Amino acid sequence: xxQPAATRPLRSPGGFPVxxxxxxxxxxxxxxxxxxxxxxxxxxxxxxxxxxxxxxVRCAPVGDHTDVESVxxxxxxxxxxxxxxxxxxxxxxxxxxxxxxxxxxSPEALVFAQDKVAMRVRLGEIGxxxxxxxxxxxxxxxxxxGAEVGWPLIAKAPRGGYDGKGVLVADSPADLAGWxxxxxxxxxxxxxxxxxxxVLLARSPSGQAATWPVVETVQTEGICTxxxxxxxxxxxxLAARATEAGLRIAGELGVTGVLAVELFDVDGERFVVxxxxxxxxxxxxxxxxxxxTGQFEQHLRAVLDxxxxxxxxxxxxxxxxxxxxxxxxxxxxxxxxxxxxxxxxKVHLYGKGVRPGRKIGHVNVSGTDAAELAxxxxxxxxxxxxVITE
Amino acid sequence: xxQPAATRPLRSPGGFPVxxxxxxxxxxxxxxxxxxxxxxxxxxxxxxxxxxxxxxVRCAPVGDHTDVESVxxxxxxxxxxxxxxxxxxxxxxxxxxxxxxxxxxSPEALVFAQDKVAMRVRLGEIGxxxxxxxxxxxxxxxxxxGAEVGWPLIAKAPRGGYDGKGVLVADSPADLAGWxxxxxxxxxxxxxxxxxxxVLLARSPSGQAATWPVVETVQTEGICTxxxxxxxxxxxxLAARATEAGLRIAGELGVTGVLAVELFDVDGERFVVxxxxxxxxxxxxxxxxxxxTGQFEQHLRAVLDxxxxxxxxxxxxxxxxxxxxxxxxxxxxxxxxxxxxxxxxKVHLYGKGVRPGRKIGHVNVSGTDAAELAxxxxxxxxxxxxVITE
Lengths: 390, 390
What we know:
Two copies of one chain form a homodimer.
Chain A: E1 18-22, H1 26-37, E2 41-45, H2 68-76, E3 80-83, H3 90-98, H4 107-114, H5 116-125, E4 133-136, H6 139-149, E5 153-156, E6 167-170, H7 177-180, E7 185-189, E8 195-203, E9 209-211, E10 215-220, E11 223-229, H8 236-253, E12 257-265, E13 271-277, H9 287-290, H10 295-303, E14 317-324, H11 334-341, E15 346-349, E16 359-367, H12 370-385
Parallel strand pairs in A: 1-2, 1-3
Antiparallel strand pairs in A: 4-7, 5-6, 5-7, 8-9, 8-10, 8-12, 10-11, 11-14, 12-13, 14-16, 15-16
């Protein structure tokens, strides 16, 4: 019944550019609305004809982001190329640059989001606080580091992890045996922290940057489940230092587009950087409804080197709750209850099939009282995923 | 280089419906973002492969809205069918109903937006204040009506008009000769008014309705050029009576989806109804950025009989300025200046080729001071259309 999307972009009149996104996940999907609003043409190199973003853009050729030919053919029609994820291999990125594609972020910047060891080295060089860490190749090296900072340790695959995948809490070197067989492992001390924060900003090739307020993120089993913007009760000094660190990272690493810096708030005064992402990020979904300029519009403006939009909040507080796949595959019938109960809840679903724990959508609610907004957001998210029935 | 959009919709997993829109103009285009956010599939029956909406949706078959076969084929894939414009002929609507299509608004309601004489008759029956009017078939009848209410008169083609087209200021029966040769003409007294207002609301098949604040609209040569939401300094009693009239019209006429009621504010206390539109409307574009639920999301919710979203304003005032086609066809290069000058301006362009006076986009700016916001919105709109260069 259904038909494939077009594989070549249709240029709009008026001199508007084509923005290509490699990867057809929900981040690419959520760029579609802002792109249409700004008159831009979006093209998506999708994993499948029914990928999340491919459902909602006209031009969505199916192609493998690790295949040089597919990626080059896609990029040839685009004025600028950006990413839904960090998984495009370095040789493919190099071929794109060689072919004259304008990539944002550049491969030189993106490597620090792709390779966690490279990221730790670079952040150390520019004086950004990080957990103590070591890249180890053997059980002996792991033993040494554990003796130094204490077990358990956080073990991370240097490449390819996301949403808690590629991360392990190791109680002893024995837990790392399988991983070490595949190459070096990044070990980090387990930081005791008060809560988790994120700094979200955008930076353009011209060097303009704009930061949203620092947010609090709540993780459940390694997956972000809730974001409160701005972070309630955040010390102004900590907020300023964290924001400054984000801007310094963006500038020093040459980031273009949206940058998310995930932090541990150690004790309400100090922070260490946990992770980086160089693309729109779960910690910024609140901005779609809660800020004058949402992260998806801002990412498009940044990669096109347009002046950035105001990141000002529209209401005092916005809470985002992720909708994770639950037990039932049918979702639409939940709308009646959720929308009737709370006419102000903003529902965002991604067109993805349900698998337990998979991110399939989120809701935003804006207002003044963070606790009340969180209750409303969680209720809507829980009802849609089916873990509550009233 | 470019390729046609798909002609059959791709159903998303999760039980989400397909909403079909007949007509591929900017109103259909602006439904695309909200549809994607809600996980809905949008299909558009477009006038051309590069129509405004066809640029930004996956499924946009090209077809003539006056051709029964094309429209039936399109509707067969849709769970509900709605409209970008009022121009689908009654026989095509009847064939759709006969084939089992769910149409919102229904043909029975839509006739009052299609036929201005039918609208005047019906509004009179339900006690809504209107200008004095008469449907005339001859110069003699026009002469009689003119003698009664005074020349000049406003002459309107009963069907097919929009944006000032199909409307004429007649100084004498001689001005109507050409029109009367084509059939009856609606004549209305020329109302002296203080300003123009619009009531915008949505109503669902279940009968739920939600109204946005009454707005002030500014028309230039019959085309809406500016909207201030809410209307500044509006008498609370007038606002309440106008809103009540809008709700009464929606209920009595059985409107489903968004209804716009254009009014003349006669003297700050009394109003008369000028026009009706049963679809998202220019007077509601401000709501995309200025309200918790914008008119395009609300229209989708209404035609699907979902509970309606909150129409609450996000900021005290939002001003919309239309961008009308100017002298130059290249638009994108204006972004650099407009976005740098005012990072909070929200730009919406429709992917339409430039023709002088054609609606090609709009801007929204939100804040507290209507006059200041209007200056900012007009500056951005004027710069993009090219009538100012700094």
